[in-house]
């Protein structure tokens, strides 16, 4: 006879509850005094959420993880939880633009920032001030997927006693583990590859307990951007297939890159495999690629970009990326040439998020869309 209690669900239960009751007032008081580690109220902690947090912390080789209701929920809680009035932030490489918009808002609270789109170590050294508290970056970068030397950034920051934070959404913990390179805080939009099915918005921070605890009490609990148990369950489901989805999407994006490479209406490909000044592999390991690839269209004007995008039949037009469905988008507008140049972005840039469809179908779609340019 096998005991009934020996059975275990292979899928985690969804703890759809707003609060947790305790058998005695003393125990409730203990839980309330330790809300960082004990479930009291789902805005702070919930077992369905904790289950995912443990997995992400382990994958990123961090001490702990907190999930948030969105990637921006995570990023804003980190930045506003760590940076004080009068302090300064440096952003490097192309950073997700709402993160920069958040930094602009922080000027109302006396926080200043410098935005260096190059990722050049000498420029970084020169931008450091006595008030610099945080260096925040992406590598590979949003839109062009340009990589910078993470280990060099960390060395410079730590020499000056400055915290480092990376938005690791592009890589997921499967392709890059920045904490192993010395980065202090890792942020994710789980909405992209980790969720993977375009059906949930979520975010995460991974760091040391000391850093996460400060963020937990200063911003996470008070901003209230907590992830619900049902959405946490969807993220856990996404994690189970992340590795196979990434492998398929990597292969498809590389095949599309090889097709675009020789095309007369493509002037340049943006993908880490095509980057000429990639950082040294020994100090910046990257275990693979994902399904993102950008290219600049020839001619690069807004009307040509519009004709190309409108002609696509398999690729849908929309924001976000990392789902099962292929997507295309451009930041190009009729009159934003200067703005794009300030962000170090070329004219005519089109970003593809390659999904899980048959790659030849996608290549045929691109081929026919080029004939409309
Ligand atoms: C989407 C995204 C975010 C924001 O995440 P949300 O879940 O949409 O709030 C942050 N950083 C990067 C690189 C992203 O792609």
Give me the secondary-structure topology:
Blueprint: H1 25-33, H2 47-60, E1 64-68, H3 71-82, E2 88-92, H4 97-105, E3 112-116, H5 121-127, E4 132-138, H6 150-159, E5 163-167, H7 172-175, E6 185-189, E7 203-207, H8 209-223, H9 229-261, E8 266-270, E9 292-297, H10 302-311, E10 316-317, E11 327-329, H11 337-342, E12 349-353, H12 359-370
Parallel strand pairs: 2-3, 2-4, 4-5, 5-6, 10-11
Antiparallel strand pairs: 1-7, 6-7, 8-9, 9-12, 11-12
Pyridoxal-5'-phosphate binds next to helix 3.
Describe what this molecule looks like in 3D.
By secondary structure, this protein is α/β, with parallel strands linked by helices. The protein contains twelve helices and twelve strands. The chain has helices spanning 25-33, 47-60, 71-82, 97-105, 121-127, 150-159, 172-175, 209-223, 229-261, 302-311, 337-342, 359-370; strands spanning 64-68, 88-92, 112-116, 132-138, 163-167, 185-189, 203-207, 266-270, 292-297, 316-317, 327-329, 349-353. Helix 2 packs parallel to helix 9 (229-261) and helix 3 packs across helix 8 (209-223). The longest helix is centred in the middle third of the chain and has 33 residues, at 229-261. The radius of gyration is 22 Å and the shape is globular. Pyridoxal-5'-phosphate binds at residues 70-72, 96, 138, 142, 167, 169, 189, 191-192, 201, 203. InterPro entries: Cys/Met-Metab_PyrdxlP-dep_enz (IPR000277), Cys_met_metab_PP (IPR054542), PyrdxlP-dep_Trfase (IPR015424), PyrdxlP-dep_Trfase_major (IPR015421), PyrdxlP-dep_Trfase_small (IPR015422). Belongs to the trans-sulfuration enzymes family. Its cofactor is pyridoxal 5'-phosphate. One of its GO terms (biological process) is transsulfuration.
């Amino acid at each position: 006879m096998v005991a009934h209690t020996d059975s275990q669900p292979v899928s985690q239960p969804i703890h759809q509850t707003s609060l947790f009751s305790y058998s005695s007032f003393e125990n409730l008081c203990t839980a309330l005094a330790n809300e960082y580690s004990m479930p009291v109220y789902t805005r702070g902690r919930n077992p369905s959420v904790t289950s995912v947090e443990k997995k992400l912390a382990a994958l990123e080789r961090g001490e702990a993880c907190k999930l948030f209701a969105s990637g921006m929920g995570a990023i804003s809680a980190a930045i506003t939880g760590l940076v004080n009035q009068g302090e300064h932030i440096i952003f490097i490489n192309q950073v997700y633009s709402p993160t920069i918009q958040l930094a602009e808002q922080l000027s109302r609270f006396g926080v200043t920032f410098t935005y260096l789109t190059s990722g050049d170590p000498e420029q970084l050294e020169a931008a450091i001030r006595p008030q610099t508290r945080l260096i925040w970056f992406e590598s590979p970068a949003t839109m062009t997927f340009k990589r910078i030397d993470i280990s060099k950034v960390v060395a410079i920051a730590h020499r000056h006693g400055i915290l480092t934070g990376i938005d690791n959404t592009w890589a997921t913990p499967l392709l890059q583990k920045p904490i192993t390179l010395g980065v202090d805080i890792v942020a994710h939009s789980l909405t992209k590859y980790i969720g993977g099915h375009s059906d949930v918005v979520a975010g995460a921070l991974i760091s040391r307990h000391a850093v996460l605890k400060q963020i937990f009490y200063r911003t996470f609990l008070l901003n209230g951007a907590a992830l619900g148990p049902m959405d946490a369950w969807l993220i856990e489901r996404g994690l189970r297939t992340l590795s196979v989805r990434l492998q398929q999407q990597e292969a498809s994006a590389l095949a599309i890159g090889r097709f675009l490479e020789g095309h007369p209406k493509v002037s340049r490909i943006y993908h880490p495999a095509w980057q000429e000044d990639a950082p040294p592999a020994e100090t910046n390991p990257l275990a693979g690629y994902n399904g993102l690839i950008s290219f600049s269209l020839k001619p690069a004007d807004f009307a040509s970009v519009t004709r190309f995008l409108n002609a696509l039949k398999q690729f849908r037009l929309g924001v976000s990326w990392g789902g099962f469905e292929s997507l295309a988008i451009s930041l190009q507008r009729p009159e934003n040439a200067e703005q794009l140049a300030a962000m170090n972005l070329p004219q005519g840039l089109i970003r593809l998020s390659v999904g899980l469809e048959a790659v030849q179908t996608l290549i045929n779609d691109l081929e026919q869309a080029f004939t409309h340019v």
